[in-house]
Amino acid sequence: MEGAQSHLDSILRPDRSSTGYEIWNRFLETGSAGRRPGQGRRRATTPNEDHYLVLTARRHRIMNATLLQQHLRSATSTTVSTQTVRNRLHGVGLYARRPMVYVRLISRHRRDRRDGSRNNPTFVHESVRFGGGGVFLYGGISIDGHTDLYIIRDRHLTARRYRDDILRPIVVPYAAAIGNDFILMDDNCRPHRANLVEDFLFEEGIVRMELPACSPGMNPIEHVWDALGRRVAGRQPPPQTPRTEKSSSGRVGQNTPTRN
């Protein structure tokens, strides 16, 4: 019996250094294993300070935890962490994030808003792309001279138009004036390389360079276009319409030298 009693005591009375011993003594003293009131770490703030934090947060809804911490320190000389401030606010249901409330838009609403924004005069900024209207020109140069500038109307050049309006009236007489040493170098664009253009040049006996140079240093026509553009832009008063720009380009083209 004594052995059984000592064994029972060892079970009912655990080691003094264990947590179970403290809980057992608390149960014997209070009749409950729960924590006694007032035990644990003391709160860093008083109820009045908690009320001050909540009141300040509700009055100034854009304040963060750091600003509320500074306000509490300046008002009560109590320094707490920002996490403590958040804990006090969370305790009364104040959180930094809140659900967004918005009007649900259907496809018709989106379409009407898009059309309204597009047609609103406030959102329309009038502008002219690429500097406004321009002139589409054709011109040829050689060592000792140049052809007349041909204005391509409607800015649309086809192979047939290139043959009938440029090659036959401009290039063929110019090639005949130069002689057998004439070699045509074009820009290698699609109208220049069409089959009907090749047949026409073969019939007229005009030799064309098969691989024109792409480098501006080897293709001097690029420098001529650059000089022509600068001279037209430098005229006073500058041309304001495509018609005046055409006349200015024609006059400048006649006076543009082919040699530097």
TrEMBL record:
Its main location: nucleus. One of its GO terms (biological process) is DNA transposition. Residues 51-113 form the Transposase Tc1-like domain. GO terms for cellular component: nucleus. Residues 232-260 are annotated as: Disordered. It comes from the Eukaryota. One of its GO terms (molecular function) is DNA binding. Residues 151-234 form the Tc1-like transposase DDE domain. Pfam families: DDE_3 (PF13358), HTH_Tnp_Tc3_2 (PF01498). It is found in: Nucleus. Residues 249-260 have a biased composition (Polar residues). This is Transposable element Tcb2 transposase. It comes from Trichonephila clavipes. The lineage of its organism: Eukaryota, Metazoa, Ecdysozoa, Arthropoda, Chelicerata.
